[in-house]
Amino acid sequence: MSLPPRLIPLLDQFDFARLRLRQRMAGPFVDSGNGTDVGVEALTDEEYLWEPVPGCWSVRRRAEGPGPRATVLTGVGDWGRDTSPPPHPTPPPFTTIAWRLSHLSELMALRADHTDGTHSLTRDDYLISGDVAAAIDAFDAGAEAWRKALLSVDDEALDTVGLSTYPHGSDPEDPFLEIVWWVNQELLHHGAEIALLRDLYRERAAWSMSP
Length: 211
Prior knowledge:
By secondary structure, this protein is mainly alpha-helical. It has helices at residues 8-26, 45-48, 97-116, 132-151, 155-158, 176-202, 204-209, and strands at residues 29-31, 37-39, 59-61, 72-74, 79-83. The chain is 47% helix and 8% strand.
């Protein structure tokens, strides 16, 4: 099946943002945007879980319980991600790389399932990764599942309201094309946040030396 013309630029954007974020996390280089390779050290477990300010939300060992202002560790497995039922805390807690990456990977995997899968998975079914290697693998799996779901749709499907039945967003009320755009902006903005946190982690020693 040929790609719907309206989907092609969004798929290209998704592929670009996905590759850029993965390179930014795993190294050994990332495209600077003008074709020049910039060296990047691989994300470590310490950096993945780094809490730059007090009261961060992160992923934690389930036995330790939720972090500050969180009431639940979502997901399955030995680790969970800090959250709370709505209304969420105000102002929102600062979140770690681990939290942002887990959230991003989960939303792609679950939306894929609710587009051309079982239409049944929830956050309670998602395995939370406590180390960076597993987290990057989960990101790859979620991104690949979502891309596969995109390749399964035709032009008519892009206008279908509720094609994605993902239960943690507005998917059941929105045309699928809007969901495709939404996932792209999630990938772009969380990717930028993770990149910035990596820069701050690299320079953290300079902070302690500041007057």
